[in-house]
Input
Amino acid sequence: MPHKFRRRPALFAAACLAVIALAGCQRKGIEELVSSELFSLSMGKMEDQIDLFQFENAMVERANSLTMRDGWFYVANGNAGKVMVFSSYGDLIFLLYNPQTNPAPTNLGPSDVNAPEVTTRGFVAYPFADIGHVAVASDRTLYVEDAVPDVKAVKDTDRGVTRSRAILRFDRKGRQLGSLGEEGIGGSPFPYVSALYVTSNDQLVVVCRLPGSWEVFWYSRDGAPLYQVEISNSNLPAKPERGVTQALVTVLPDLQSPLLYLILSSYKDVVDARAAASASNDAVTTRAYKLDLRTQQYIPGFVEFPANPPHRTKAGLKTIEIPSPPSDLLGVSTGGYFYLLAYTDTNLYTLQIVDSSGRVRAQRRVVIEDSELAFRDIHLSSTGIIYGLLADKSKAHVSWWRSDLLLKGE
Output
């Protein structure tokens, strides 16, 4: 039987007010998605340290990045010319390093690439020149972007770029598998590489950025070229209206099908300073369009992302609204969900998970201490986990946010 009670007017009224107030707070507030620090790296040149600074407070102008696969973390330290592989507990498992820019490892033994079994801890030397992005396949094949020797670089005068990048391949024991170029294994160099992706069936996608266009190269797991496309402002899926400026923000692949997502932001043109001061985020629209690589045709329709609300702040006795930048797209999970990170306030962001119809399926607050960071590299795993390499002046921290749990049961 349901529990019966007698209403006491004063207490009942107070309870009702408390419930209403709580409901209002819940509507306005957003629950926080708390990060977990998995391990940290000290600054330095030893095998389990990261070299981010040339001297105090000055970063070296080389790429440093992070990728995760099956609980292992691959830290590409371009400044030192090495790739470190860590367990989720921070144990150094494997090291690929340039002996010209790193001291000899002291806590690891050299890997026997001819051994039938994979050693759990070891190192392999390789003369990296300028490490960029890294990616990992399910069999732990490691892809490392690097510079080609100057004599092999190709000046492309038509596109105004120098094609000087290659994708090196290593198996799980550090054996070289041959480098990838535009035409596949041993092909000509790529231009500037914006990102590397590995799909759910271990196909590699190389996204390149040129001054007036984007180029995408799609390869089989064996390195054979499958698709290639160039996307410029002249062949975008939508034409801007009068008074609107359109920008192709990024291009990224679907992880299960040979499709590309083109992220286009449209901005209303501002004609004077007064209009700029009163502009709101309604002036910015961001949409994702699909390009089918099998047909080289755009799929009708688009996904429109939620606008990032303006930031409110005090200016004397007045409260003013400052337009916020568009949300950053962290990536697309294998389930086809878009993960957006919107700037809300100092050190505060809003995570939104959007489905293919543009509906927000989950929303959380995310705290990232940007004001205390000297370096930040954040990514999305294929399963929907946000992870990143966050460095202050003394240490680099590898953390994650279990955003995959927000859609549990979807």
